[in-house]
Each structure stands twice: as C-alpha cells, then as structure tokens.
Write a structure and sequence with these properties.
Layout lengths: L8 H7 L13 H4 L19 E3 L5 E5 L9 H12 L9 E4 L9 H8 L3 E5 L15 E4 L4 E5 L2 H6 L1 H16 L1
Parallel strand pairs: 2-3, 2-4, 4-6
Antiparallel strand pairs: 1-3, 5-6
C-alpha cells in the first residue's frame, strides 16, 4: 500500500478488506476519534417510540432540531425555560422533542399520534421538513386536532432581537388561544 494519509482505525477499517492486527501500540483518544472537531452528543434513549423531555399528556409540544445537543444549547434552554415560565408553564408540563435524535421519527403523523398535542411549536424546524403546508414564521395554522406555530430557533432569536420580539407577541397569543 502506498502513502496512507491516516492512522485512524475506523477509516482504515473502511478502506481495508483484510483483517488487521495491532502490533502492540496504543493510540490516545485524540487520535482515536474519527470526528475530533465535531461535538460529541450523548443522545438520550428510550424504550418508547420517541425520546423526549417533559410531559406529553399536557398537550403542548415543542419540536426542535438541534444536532449538537440532546435538546437545547445551555443558553437556549435557559431562554426557553424563562419564556414558558412567563406563561405559567414549566419543563414538567410541556413536551420537548429533538428531531435530530436518531431515535426520533421525523414524520408528523407519528409525532401527532404519539404525543396527541393540541398545540405544537416548531422552533426552527421548517414545516416542509415534516410535510406540512407552508406556515410563515411567527404564525400558526389550526388543524383538526392541533394548532401548529412556526417560529425561529432560539439561536436565530439570539442573533436578531427583532425575531425575538415578533416571536414573543405571537407566541403569547398562540398559547392563550
């Protein structure tokens, strides 16, 4: 073999079609990682169909897609908790599902059937990705069983205060309805 450019065992395994044995050397964890620069997410798991945080029986569901965190970034979770607290809600009486978790199906019908929500908030999740009709940001669509509010992720709102103001005005109305 000529000029291998990696000593990563996972990459080598993918490239080789023969079994390789160690010659007694040990690689440290930094070399052993196939994704050194990518954050490592320890995804929650569950025996249920979905992995989620909170209580699905309350009928209020928040759907997000944060690939770098099990649910929210620390800053976003703090903002989320303060936001729902201002409306008399807590993490214990709403459900939060992260569609980036590989265990969670990204099918709206399965989400709806499992959670049976009456109010769904899409936090940075495009409705089209769930095969829903187009819903402009900071507005909602009432369906037969649930109303779906489409808004920005907390990171988008952190970056643009005007998005945060638009969100808050409509979100209060949505939750109160």
């Amino acid at each position: 073999m000529s000029n291998l450019l990696t000593d990563n065992p996972i990459a080598l395994q993918a490239l080789m079609n023969e079994t390789l044995f160690s010659a007694g050397f040990v690689m440290d964890n930094a070399q052993n990682s196939s994704s050194e620069n990518l954050p490592s997410v320890n995804w929650d798991s569950s025996t249920e169909e979905f992995v989620y945080k909170g209580d699905k029986s309350a009928g209020i569901l928040f759907i997000l897609r944060y690939p770098d965190y099990p649910y929210f970034s620390p800053e976003a979770e703090e903002a989320f908790v303060k936001t729902i607290a201002a409306l008399g809600l807590t993490l214990e009486n709403v459900a939060v599902v992260n569609l980036a978790n590989p265990q969670n199906p990204n099918e709206f019908s399965r989400i709806r059937d499992f959670f049976t929500p009456t109010k769904i908030t899409l936090l940075g999740v495009e409705p089209k990705s769930l095969v829903l009709p187009e819903i402009p940001h900071n507005s909602y669509l009432k369906g037969r069983a649930a109303a779906v509010f489409n808004t920005f992720s907390f990171e988008e709102m952190f970056a643009d205060i005007s998005k945060k103001k638009l969100f808050w005005g409509e979100f209060k109305t949505f939750i109160a309805s």
